[in-house]
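Tutorial, part two.
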Amino acid sequence: MSGLEQAEIFRAVLEALPTGVYFVDRNKKIAFWNDGAERITGYLRQDVVGRACRDDILVQGTENGSVVCAPTCPVADTIHDGQPRNTMVYIRHRAGHRILVQVRTVPIRDGRGVIIGAAESFDELRMRTQNRRQGDRMIEACIDETTDVPNHESLQSTLEEMLASLTEQQQPFGLLLVRVDQLNEFKLAHGPDAADTMLRAVAQTLKNSLRGTDIVGRWDKETLLAILPECMPSPVEELSKRVQRIAGSVSIEWWGDQLSPTVSVAGATAQKGDSISTLMARAEECLEAVVTNPD
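Running the prediction step on this input gives:
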């Protein structure tokens, strides 16, 4: 088998891998982008090959929304020092939502050992590994068409189950209301499709970022609800701050502009004797307080 034939076989294998793989040269221009990278990020080869990875492609960030591509990033560091790296970061999907991935970066060297670029592979981390009962319930659940998460009726059914478990088995739980602020104004400025895309991006980001046992759904036109099993008051308060950072880092591309939402988040913990009405009224009161006094 000739060297050329071997190279073609290796390339075909890399192209077909479900893991995202891409190569960059020393200027961080993308020279290779495989099927896995297309699937995970939503960007096709023709969208990215020949462009610098810092050109608003594969924007990598931490949980609090800080971008790790500037002024340095794992690819740049590996090209500089030749050391492989392994880290977890959030990347932004082409649709705008964030995905948690495991990233591995290695240097590419020529025949003389000189570094000529870097290769990076990445796999999506599935935060929402459901047990069978939860999986069956999610499959059967009514899904909101806009956000692709459970709708209001499905969330109500889940809350009824959780409140019954609280009464019978003392299983605590909390919830978070996540409101995309001024969504109507956003819709007037950019159109209903942009508003729907933004809401979906926030919903999918939350779904990808919370625990496997948590349930994220659409409560009303501009509000998402996260139900948090076995979550006590203090963790709910801490999680509300984390969720606000995560949701606030969402960004969608719309007619050449990058649009980001502002969100308000507040939570409540279920108490014995609660009904859905009393629990949600307490959560909504906390949310209104946050909206009125954001600081």
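Residues 157 and 230 are 18 Å apart (CA to CA). In part three we will examine how such features are distributed along the chain.
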